[in-house]
Amino acid sequence: MGGLGSKERFQLNYIKTASVPCSVGHGVLRRRNSSNTLRFHPIHGENLQLVENGCVARRAESFCKGIAFSNRPVRVGEYVYLKFVELSVNWSGAVRFGFTSVDPSSLDGASLPKYVCPDLTNKPGFWAKALPERLVDHNAVLFYYFTADGDVHFGINNQEMGVFFSGVDSRERLWAVVDVYGNTMAVEFIDPNQSRLNNARVSSDSTTETSTLNRRISEVTSSPSTTTTPSRTTGRNAAFASAHSRPQSKYHPHSCFSPLPFHRVHGQNVRLSNDHLTAARDVGEFANGYVFFSRDRKSVV
C-alpha cells in the first residue's frame, strides 16, 4: 500500500466504518491494538469476507447475503463511522444499517437471511433502514449513532443529516448491524479522528458549493430590481414588483398578478433572496428546507 495522498498508489476498494479503529501514520494504514476498537464480528453473511484484522467487510459475490455486526455493543451516543471505498454499478440499492439487541454470537452465520431489511427488521430486536443510493459516493464517510430516546441520527462527511429512524430500545445492549447490499461492495470501520482529517477536503468542497449557491442567489437579487412594471401594477402590487419576468396567465391574459414572497421565517437550511421570491436549500443538506408564504390564502385570493 502506498501513501494516502496518491490515488494511483492507494486504491482502497472497500467501505470504511469505525469508532476508534484504524489510524494512518507515515503513509501506512495501521491498526490500533485496542480492545475498544470497533471491528466486525466473526458471525456474518455467507457472501462476506472480513479482512484487515476485521476492520473491512467485503462482499465477494452477488448483491445480498452481506449482513455484518460490530464485534462489541455500541454505547449511547457513540459514533459508528463507515467509509465507502468500493462501489459497483452492476446492482441497485445501497447499504442498510442500524442496530440490534441480539448478540451476534447467538446467531448462525450460515443461517443469516439474504437481507437485513425486512428479513431481520421484522423480528424483535432488529432496527435498520436503507441509505438512499444518491447519498453514497466513493470515499464518502457515513456516520450514525443512537440516543437515549431511541432515535438513530446519521450524517455524511461530518454533516449531520438528522434522525434516520426511531424506536430503538436504548435500554438494551446494542450492536451495530450493517448490510453490505447492492452497489455497496465493502465497508471498513475507521478512526473518527482520521475521518475528520480526511473530510477537511470534503468541507472545502462543500464551502465551494455553498459559495456557488450564494452566488446564484446573489445573481437573482442583483438583477435590476428597479425595472418598472406595467402601469396596471399599482397599489399593493407595486410593493412586490420585481425585475423577474412573470409568465402571463393562459386563461387570464389581461389580469395582473402580484408576486407572492416567502415569509422571513423559514427552515435553518434555507436561504432567501433579497426580494424573498427565491428560496434555495443549502448544498449538502436535505432537511429543514421548509418555507411559508408571507400572506395567508384569503389575502392572496
Weakly predicted, low-confidence segments:
1-34, 199-204, 220-245
The rounded Rg comes to 25 Å
Number of strands: 16
| Distance between the amino and carboxyl termini | 67 Å
Strand percent estimate: 25-35%
SSE string, helices as H and strands as E: EEEEEEEEEEEEEEHHHEEH
Choose one word for the global shape: elongated
Mean of residue pLDDT values: 76
Number of helices in the DSSP assignment? 4
Question: How helical, in percent, are the residues?
Answer: 10-25%
Report the sheet with the most strands, covering strand number, pairing sense and barrel closure: 8 strands, mixed
Structural class comes to alpha+beta
Can you describe this structure?
By secondary structure, the chain is an alpha+beta fold. The chain is built from four helices and 16 strands. The chain has helices at residues 192-198, 200-221, 236-239, 297-300; strands at 15-18, 22-25, 28-31, 48-51, 56-59, 67-74, 80-87, 96-100, 126-130, 141-146, 152-156, 159-165, 174-179, 184-189, 270-272, 279-281. The protein starts with 14 loop residues before the first strand and ends with a helix.
Task: List the SSEs and their pairings.
Elements: E1 15-18, E2 22-25, E3 28-31, E4 48-51, E5 56-59, E6 67-74, E7 80-87, E8 96-100, E9 126-130, E10 141-146, E11 152-156, E12 159-165, E13 174-179, E14 184-189, H1 192-198, H2 200-221, H3 236-239, E15 270-272, E16 279-281, H4 297-300
Parallel strand pairs: 1-14
Antiparallel strand pairs: 1-7, 2-3, 4-5, 5-14, 6-13, 7-10, 7-14, 8-9, 8-13, 10-11, 11-12, 15-16
